[in-house]
Amino acid sequence: MSMPLSEGPPRLVMTEQTYAEPHCSRSPAVLCAVAEPTQDRKQLIFTAFDGTGRSRELIRADIDPQSYLDYEWDLSPDGSRIAVLKAPENLIKILSVRGGPAQGIGAKQWRTWRV
């Protein structure tokens, strides 16, 4: 749902089920993104969205189709990168939404907190 800053009724922006919750950059950046697995569950597709709905595909990340629900992700504060972690592995992949090679960062003793 989108709510206008001025007066007016809320409006529906998206109805699709996404992978986890949407993530947004911090001001002054203005990027928000959602993630969805491909139909074959071999990739996560990250797509930008705004108050009017989806806008453009940002990037795709290869994932293990057998454990596609084990992935966590977040958008960097400036909206330039997406971090992807497969629990319980200890490697975070950093993907640039502007292209370029992925980077890896070790995460010792990472624990995923699921409710």
Report what the structure shows.
The chain is built from no helices and eight strands. The protein has 115 residues and is mostly beta strands. It has a four-stranded antiparallel sheet with strand order 1-2-3-4, with no helix packed on it. A four-stranded antiparallel sheet has the order 5-6-7-8, with no helix packed on it. β6 and β7 form a beta hairpin. The relative contact order is 0.16.
Task: Pick out its properties.
115 residues; mainly beta; four-stranded antiparallel β-sheet; globular
Low-confidence stretches: none
Can you count the beta strands?
Answer: 8
Hey, roughly how much beta strand do the residues contain? 35-45%
Give the termini distance in whole angstroms.
24 Å
- Indicate the percent of residues in helices: under 10%
Number of helices: 0
Mean pLDDT: 82
Structural class: mainly beta
State the order of secondary-structure elements, H for helix, E for strand.
Answer: EEEEEEEE
3D shape: globular
Strand line-up in the sheet with most strands: 1-2-3-4
